[in-house]
Amino acid sequence: MSIVPASANDWQDFNRLAEQQGWDVPHNELSFYPQSLNSYCYALKSADQVQGFVTAVLHGQTAWIGNLIIDPTFRGQGLGGYLFDYILQQLWKAGAASVWLTASNQGRPLYERRGFELIDEMVRLRVNGTGSENAIGSLCAAELETLYQIDCAAWGDSRTAMLSHLGRQGRLVQNKTQTALVQFDPLGGILGPWYVAEGGAFDGTSLVEEAQRCFTSETELVCDLRASSVSLAAFARLGKLTQGENVLMAVGDRSGCSLDSMIALASLGSMG
Fold first, then answer.
1. What residues contact 263, with CB distance under 8 A and at least 6 apart?
2. What backbone torsions phi and psi does residue 62 show, to the nearest 5 degrees?
3. Is 115 left (phi over 0), alpha (psi -120 to 50) or beta?
4. Mean pLDDT of the chain
5. CA 211, CA 119: separation in Å to the nearest integer?
6. pLDDT recorded at residue 270
7. Which residues, at least 6 apart from 127, have a Cβ–Cβ distance to it below 8 Å?
8. 14, 181, 244, 249: which has the fewest Cβ within 10 Å?
9. pLDDT (tens digit, 9 = 90+) per residue, 199-244?
10. C-alpha distances in Å from residue 62, one per residue of 82, 87, 166, 197, 220
11. What is the pTM of this model?
12. How do residues 159-213 score in pLDDT, each as one tens digit?
C-alpha cells in the first residue's frame, strides 16, 4: 500500500467514487487541482488499485483539506485516518499555520481526535435560476482585484490563485455592503465567496435573487452558508436549505483570520 501523487487515471477513479458517494464536485474545482502549484492531490493505492483519495490547497499559510474519500470496499480499516494524517503532515511541512475543512457528521470524530475545533455550522442553500438564459463571462482585472482585497482581509492570506481560476467563469454581484462571486460551472451555478462589509447591513435575499437571474429555471444555484452569519428563515423562503449535516472546522493558528465578514465559502467545501 502506498500514497502517491494522483495521476490523470486516478482522477477517473476519484470521479467514480464521488459519484457513488453522491458528492457535488464542481468542474471548476476539479480543473483547478491538476494545474495549480499550491494544490496537493494524493491517491492511496494497493497493487495499482485506488483505495482512497484526498485533495488539499495551501493559500499562503492557510490550508484546506477536501475530498477525502475511501472506496466503500476498503472502509473500516483505518485507511481514512492514514490518508488524512499523510496530507496533514505534508501541509505542516509546507508551512501551513492553520488547516481548515468542512466535516460531515460521520467524519467529524476523525478530525476532532486530531485537534480540529468547531468553527461554525455550514448550511447548503439550493435555489433555481429565474433568468431567461444561463450567463457566461469572466471577471475583469478590476473586479478580480476587488475580490482579492476583500477575501484577503477575511482570511489574512492571499488566495489569488484559486480566485482568479474561479473568476474565469463568473460574475461579481454587489450592493452597497456586500460582494459575492457567481460562478458559472457545468454542474450549475455556485454563489461564493460572499462577504459583507464591516458594520454593513446584510440583506442576503437581494443578492441571491440577483445571482438567480444569471441562470434559467432548469439550472440550480448552490451556496454553502456559514450558519451564524445569516438569518436562515429568510433563505428558506427562497429555496431548499440543508442543515445539520456539515460543519466548518480548523486546527492551528487562526489569529490572522477574521471571518465575521464571510457569508459563504468560495467552493462547496473542498477549497475554502
1. 178, 180, 194, 195, 196, 202, 204, 225, 226, 229, 230
2. -110, 115
3. left
4. 93
5. 27
6. 87
7. 208, 212, 220, 221, 238, 239, 240
8. 244
9. 666 666 899 999 999 999 999 999 999 999 888 888 888 999 999 9
10. 22, 14, 18, 22, 30
11. 0.94
12. 999 999 999 999 999 998 999 999 999 989 999 999 998 766 666 689 999 999 9
* 170-174 vs 220-226, strand pairing mode: unpaired
Spatial contact of 262 and 159, defined as CB atoms under 8 Å apart: no
The DSSP result for 181-234, as a single string, is: EEEEETTEEEEEEEEE-TT----HHHHHHHHHTTS-TTSEEEEEEEGGGS-HHH
Strands (E), 28-106: 39-46, 49-59, 62-70, 98-104
pLDDT in tens, 59-74: 999 999 999 999 989 8
d(Cα 39, Cα 30) in Å, to the nearest integer?
11
Task: Write out the three cell numbers for 56.
Answer: 488539499
Nearest residue to 207 via CA among 188, 223, 186, 220: 223
Q: Quick one: which of 93, 16, 11, 2 has its CA closest to 44?
A: 2
Grid cell listed for 233: 428563515
149: Cβ–Cβ under 8 A, 6 or more apart, which residues? none
Q: What share of the chain is helix, strand, coil (3-state, %, to 5)?
A: 35, 35, 30
Distance CA 111, CA 117 (A): 8
pLDDT reported for residue 208:
94
Least Cα distance to 83 among 118, 60, 110 occurs for 110
